[in-house]
Amino acid sequence: MSKFTLAFGIHNHQPVGNFDAVFEEAHRNAYLPFLQLVRNFPAMSLSLHQSGILWNWQKRIHPDYFELVGSMIDSGQIEVMTGGFYEPILTSIPERDASGQIAMLTQYLKAHFDANAEGLWLTERIWEPHLPKLLAESGVRYLPVDDTHFVYTGLELSQLTGPFVTENEGKTVTILPIQKRLRYLIPFGTVNEVIAELKHQADRNPEGIAVYADDGEKFGVWPNTHQHCYTDGWLSRFFEALDQNSDWLQVKSLSYAASQKPVGRVYLPSASYAEMLHWSLPSTAFTQYEDFEHLLEKQGLLERYGRFVRGGHWRGFLAKYEESNLMHKKMLSVSDRLERLSASHSRSADGLTKARERLYAGQCNCPYWHGVFGGLYLPHIRQAVYENLVASDAILGGIEQAGTTILMRDYDADGRDEVVVSSDSLSAVFRPHTGGMMIDLSLNEEGFSLTDTLTRRREGYHAKLDKAVTSGNSSSTASIHDLVLAKEEGLKEVLIEDWYLKRCFIDHFFTPDVDLRRFRSGKFGEEGDFVLEPYDFHIDAKHQLVVLSRRGRIYRPEGATPLEVHKRFSFATPHVIDVTWRLTAPECDSIKVRFGVETNFTFQAGHAEDRYILIDGERPESPYLDSVAEHIMAHGFGMIDEYRRLGIALMGDRPADIWRLPIFTVSLSEGGFEKVYQGTTFVHLFELELSRRTTEISLRLTTGLSDLVQSVINKDTTASGKR
Fold it and tell me: I want to staple 85 with a disulfide (CB 3.0 to 4.6 A). Which of 52, 312, 383, 578 is the partner?
């Protein structure tokens, strides 16, 4: 007797760089108890996908989990699925890397479980039409994607009763439509509601298939779900109900569904699940999209016309967030360098293999985008990706042995050249067309990005902050897509919108009324046109110099005054960048200005005892990286990270007032709205009188091991008579 089939798949993943405690909590609260419960229902079989990151962690910490999975594979209850080993967005990385990542996980599963993984978990179900050829050539036979993808083609939900076939250049794969309704019902509806939905589908199509595939974290990691699924017994009741209805219902793996006769051929548009497409929109469009959906819902039209309401595109995150784009383009730069050296340095196979694995780890998708999860807004996840990319680049630099190079190229793919500096000790990128600022500074030997800060933006979901309740006051088991929680009170006071990218060596000419308080608000006046405007640039590769210059203006009620700013960056000394400004008012005998040099750096933890500020070699009253202070007539500051044994120092040739203040963002996470430290802003403020004669200011940035940096600070402050 034929039966209706529930094809069941689970996807488990933790990002590169996540804390061990988070891995452990997810393992104990979701991954392990879920499989232990499934084992009690031998008639049930399912597909399991885990990222290679998670497999490796469990192999190291919980080898018994491998034994459990292996026994369930042997009994036929589990089939394992492949994917990109480090869970990349396949369409966002070079195809050579996508193929390599899939092969890496496929081979891993074969080696550890003797399993031939023919199904693939598509990261975030982000589909683009060229994928079938890549997947088929990687040995992939089938994959689940959302029913949303199919509906966008014009198909009706009632038509999605089984597998479909798609192709590119004649290379075919089978695709399975994941039902959004089941994703929301399991485990957030009642068990009776889920069974009723399946029975309704079975009555219409007794031999049909309903596909469910979703994150395993919703069974124990998402807020209150461990209590709901295990303590309160929702999951066991669900499995029992499936078993009790076995006369008409069977629970099978995704490969079973893929092996059935195709419903037809289909060509999917670029898509992901509906929430992802919503999140990728700019903030204004984000809100308008939400309003339009609510309008259609209120008028009873959403179900009928919702297929025509689409959000953006995953790649939109690379335009929405400049930091995502810079991370992505660094990844592409490292990948291209690896490809080039692989063709010319075959004798360096071991080094190239290490560089490739670090590159793959740096392609983990999580910090490249942001939705209801922290993603891009989580500093430790961003930094872990940067750590791997910088380490891979450093390995390749050691193979290439090119010394210090300074090149012009369109690094960030915006149609305009950047200046890219690479040496043994560091790499730096300058953007001449936006204030001549430094947009990236990474320490190669230490594998750390000093400029991995985040600009504060208005997000579409900030409008909901007024409705948020603190997480301790909620016991709801609603989906995280529906919860409106806050981790602490007063978050609205932290909302600040920056009007320029928070990176380094930004030239400000402040109006007289700008003090630390005004600057901190993000709403302050500029007299000059230098922050966002283009600088000319010149490279002196022989002397390892980058020179940027702009002839701009100071605007005052009495009129505009021409002003010239030349800043020169010297990379002649390892671990050091010497910066010299030459400021001139070519048509003026005398003009007083308030010139500020802004830099933004991060050592991640804002309020930790092992990370602190030094001012002229001394710890100030409040040394934390997230503290606010103004220091009058100081020569410079240091940031020390004893945890990593790293430090930086920016010391001047003359005293200046120094402002320092933290960068806090308010973002969404699984637990609700949260405040996150994203770096520390410093401003050297100089009161200057400019004329036709050149005024020169110098700052020296020293980077590297904390002992070296502290010795430099002590030497500079002693020489200046400050100690």
Answer: 52
Query: 433 pLDDT band (50/70/90 cuts)?
Result: very high
pLDDT at 295 over 70: yes
> Is residue 483 packed enough to be buried (19+ CB in 10 Å), middle (13-18) or exposed (0-12)?
buried
Q: What is the C-alpha separation between 97 and 523, in angstroms, rounded?
A: 44
Assess whether pLDDT exceeds 70 at residue 420: yes
What are the DSSP E strand ranges found in 557-645? Answer: 559-570, 576-584, 591-601, 611-615, 629-641
Helix (H, G, I), strand (E, B) or coil at 74: helix
The residues annotated as belonging to the active site are: 124, 215
What are 672-719's pLDDT values in tens digits? 888 999 999 999 999 999 999 999 999 999 998 777 677 777 766 665
* Cα distance between residue 138 and residue 331, in whole Å: 22
- Cα–Cα distance, 417 to 439 (Å, whole number): 13
Bridge-based pairing state of the strands 695-705 and 672-690 = unpaired
Mean of pLDDT values over 191-204: 97
3-state secondary structure of 58: helix
Beta strands in 410-535 (DSSP E): 418-422, 426-431, 437-443, 448-449, 469-470, 485-486, 506-509
Q: Are 598 and 506 in contact (CB under 8 A)?
A: yes
- CB contact burial 690-716 (16+ within 10 A = b; e otherwise): beeeebebebbbbbbbbebbbebbbeb
- pLDDT above 70 coverage of the chain, percent: 96
Q: If you write DSSP's letter for every residue of 575-590 in order, what string do you get? A: TEEEEEEEEE-TT-S-
Query: Which residue, among 531, 535, 515, 532, has the nearest Cα to 523 in the 3D structure?
Result: 515
Q: What pLDDT shows up at residue 723?
A: 45
Type and span of the H or E element at 679: strand 672-690
- 389: nearest Cα among 338, 319, 316, 341: 338
Two tokens at 442?
């990474």
Backbone angles phi, psi at 223, to 5 degrees: -50, 125
Write phi, then psi, for 687 (nearest 5 degrees).
-90, 110
Distances from the Cα of 134 to the Cα of 194, 320, 364, 567, angstroms:
36, 28, 19, 47
State the Rg of the chain over Cα: 28
Encode pLDDT of 315-352 as tens digits. 999 999 999 999 999 999 999 999 999 998 877 889 99
Q: Mean pLDDT of all residues in the chain?
A: 93
Taking the C-alpha atoms of residue 721 and residue 719, their distance in angstroms, rounded to an integer, is: 5
